[in-house]
Amino acid sequence: MTRARQIMAFVIIGVAQARASCWAMTPQARTDLQVFEIAIQACKQQQPRESSVTVPPQIIALAGADNPAYFGGMALLYYCLHEPLRTVFKFAHQGAHRGDALAEDLLGDVYSSGFPGLPASHGKAMYWQQRSAEQGFPLGEADVGIDFLKGLGVRPDPSMAATWLRKAADAGVVSAMHTMGALYLRGVILPPFSGHPPKRPGIARTAPG
């Protein structure tokens, strides 16, 4: 499933579930979930690569309130409208360094693919996606699960993958549900949900960039 389809599937099925499980999220991640929904609705009303991007007033208001969710919302708008990754990176980088969970996850996405002038780095992608996941942000949890499953920026660990994918699936991320089904078929035993994201030893805790 492509990233765009993963995002849209989460919107269709998972937002209500994520709201219901928001007790597991940090306050910033709860704000990000609202911004996520606003940005996606705005994307549906615009065509990719229009002459200008229309920013919803709710997201503009976040800038006035000095809330880092503004940067995550802007990064998502440009990401969904297929704007250059350099622009997505600019907003995601600012928001991620201010602790915004949506921006952290999107910054990880940009690092995973890279663009001219920014080499791809699975290690940096894993770092930022885990920062997002540790705030309880569902797409961050799904991405970290895939990182552990495929060994992207970290040693492969199916058990850790199952832990994070279980959290994402519980929040309604459809791609995580599908992957969990495959893990069941492969005989991977899923650990019980603890409500507390695990800490992975050996991952740098200093922002890599």
Could you walk me through the main structural features you see in this protein, from its secondary elements to its overall organization?
- The protein is mostly helical.
- It has a domain at 3-132.
- It is 63% helix and 0% strand.
- It contains ten helices and no strands.
- Helix 1 crosses helix 2 (27-44) and helix 2 runs parallel beside helix 4.
- The longest helix has 18 residues, at 3-20.
- It is globular, with a radius of gyration of 16 Å.
- Mean pLDDT is 82; it is low at 9-13 and 197-205.
* Discrete helix count: 10
Distance between the termini: 28 Å
Averaging pLDDT over every residue, what do you get? 82
Radius of gyration: 16 Å
Percent strand equals: under 5%
Give the SSE string.
HHHHHHHHHH
Structural class: mainly alpha
Shape: globular
Major sheet description: none
Strand segment tally: 0
- Give the low-confidence spans: 9-13, 197-205
Percent helix range: 55-70%
Question: What's the short story on this structure?
Answer:
Helices cover 63% and strands 0% of the residues. By secondary structure, the protein is mainly alpha-helical. It has a domain of 130 residues.
Task: Give the topology.
Layout: H1 3-20, H2 27-44, H3 57-64, H4 69-80, H5 85-96, H6 101-113, H7 122-134, H8 138-150, H9 158-170, H10 174-185
Helix pairs in contact: 1-2, 2-4, 3-4, 4-5, 4-6, 5-6, 6-7, 7-8, 8-9, 9-10
Descriptive tags:
mainly alpha, single chain, globular, 209 residues
